[in-house]
Amino acid sequence: MNLLKQRILSDGQCLDNGTLKVDNFINHQMDPALMMAMAQEIANRFDNKGINKIVTIEASGIAPAILVGYLMQVPVVFAKKNVPSTMEHMISTPVFSFTKKRCYDVGISRNFLSADDHILFVDDFLANGNAAMGIIDIASKAGAQIAGMAFLIEKGFQNGRQKLLDMGIHIESLAIIKSLDNCTITFE
Amino acid sequence: MNLLKQRILSDGQCLDNGTLKVDNFINHQMDPALMMAMAQEIANRFDNKGINKIVTIEASGIAPAILVGYLMQVPVVFAKKNVPSTMEHMISTPVFSFTKKRCYDVGISRNFLSADDHILFVDDFLANGNAAMGIIDIASKAGAQIAGMAFLIEKGFQNGRQKLLDMGIHIESLAIIKSLDNCTITFE
Q: Fewer beta carbons within 10 Å, N or C terminal of chain B?
């Protein structure tokens, strides 16, 4: 998606440690017009796939997910990283975050995921695929089908895509980073 | 807002401990059409107030905030509950959560909040106002003006509103709960 790639080149920052920082338009400050354009692109790519629910993980996935859900006219469920005391019947799974260097439990209530569901998972980044694998585990426990996964930005030099393809998942990423070497952003 | 009040009556659950559970349409599973209608109502109520930025706190505030930002055509910033290693220059403040019975730090990067900003704070709930007071503290440290605060649901029997009114804040809540006594939901 050219609009996103141009924005990454103009406003993204490549840090010395190989991190791509997009916190001025995607995951801290958000540009709602760009976010809606990306949601429209995702909705187009997954049109007529029988999707009846959008699933994401708090926090950065929520903004694109609610917009995709609005456009596709289906409910949106966000997996929670901490289970509040008021919530029972959670289906949970551990996810390891490379960014934060720690493991956390992610959970969705059994009330909102069932064998009737054909879900589209929406998230901001695909890198090593750990969060996506967590959602696959939760969906499996609920008997739900994964109709596809959509990511705003994919780090193509990491192994998330291969893991998901090996499981037969349909993946769409709006911008795929080929390399961040020498702090230069190149796309596939 | 009658649409929201009717939905709270039909789908909200009042728990024995006095909690109002709206996790099937607001803060776990979300109804995007209702969310957009609420965002439109908020945008209408704060039209022509000179607002140039929406601020919220992860995670439940993000969905209404991105929609309000989209409608008002201004950037949206969500305060983070944990500061990632990639983010410097955070303005942070401690917030005590009664729901989770613990204190957590909330932060916004100095890059995204300045003395030029007239912000609208958007969140799902107003109860004791602790999160809102945290944002007031952060805005004050950044020199930003708070043009108003919008909440989907207010617990009118708690003291958040009075705290904010005492500070001269313009508050709009789409549904104000008068009482949850005996597990019966009544509105003001």
A: C
Size of interface A-B (CB pairs under 8 A): 128
* Two tokens, residue A106: 């992610």
ipTM of the prediction: 0.96
Contact map slice: A 127-186 vs B, CB within 8 A: none
Cβ atoms within 10 Å of A128's Cβ, excluding its own: 16
Number of folded domains that form chain A:
1
Q: Distance (Å, rounded) from C-alpha A146 to C-alpha A122?
A: 11
B-chain residues near A80 (CB < 8 A) = 28, 59
**Structural domain boundaries, residue B101:** 2-187
CATH code: domain of residue B104: 3.40.50.2020
Nearest Cα neighbor of A53 from A125, A138, A174, A160 is A138
CA distance B30 to A77: 6
Q: In this complex, is the C-beta atom of B188 within 8 Å of any C-beta atom belonging to chain A? A: no
Helices assigned H by DSSP within A46-170 = 62-72, 130-142, 160-166
